[in-house]
């Protein structure tokens, strides 16, 4: 996806060497750095953080990466694991930090990538300044995610089936038909009104070579950590959680494991899982106040 017409954001793109190719990072603006990290799903990309990118480019140096296997980053036939995703975030954050004189980086992550960002911050003290987790995973009621370090929900039998001759590609094509992409976005929004620009980009992105590889890993469960409660409890940075009340992502009962810690705060908006698309003014009021209150 090197064609500029396939870019998710109207911005310059830098690349960093990755173990299996390149990581793509959109960048714009000047000032204090802010790193944006999209979610993980069948058609994820930096297109999911477009409102954040467009808003903060006027006041900050803003960066949005495409995670390995997504968007403009290399979509290679390689393992896609929690470690691969976490290390990609660390690599990009260190690059951003170097560009800004060693200053720690504010970061925003969406959905499952919140787990990767939290892990990156725990493992790399001094790299990040604050964390914002939008609709983070790992907080559903009934979950007790305190297993041994680096364990996950990998389903080996299902993964073998997905990687059997033709099955994974067939399933991916069914999941990424335009009508199905719209259906899942409506479930994310919890409403029929979705962002049409995001839908259109997702339809294009899904038809690029090797687009199914990272999503099939996602379906196998290997990207879902079963030690994430331990990780979340170890986060010491100022951390803001923002989530909505509609759609498929509304169960955050287990936020109780961290919400009493003084560095964590939780804000709820009457939206779906990507509130910055729906109520940008309300969202940015919360985000700006949080970032403004973070100690220098």
Automatic annotation (TrEMBL):
Q: What is this protein called?
A: AB hydrolase-1 domain-containing protein
Query: Which segments constitute the AB hydrolase-1 domain?
Result: 33-263
Q: What Gene3D superfamilies would the database entry show?
A: alpha/beta hydrolase
Q: Which InterPro entries match?
A: AB_hydrolase_1 (IPR000073), AB_hydrolase_fold (IPR029058)
Pfam name, any one: Abhydrolase_1
**Origin organism lineage:** Bacteria, Pseudomonadati, Pseudomonadota, Betaproteobacteria, Burkholderiales
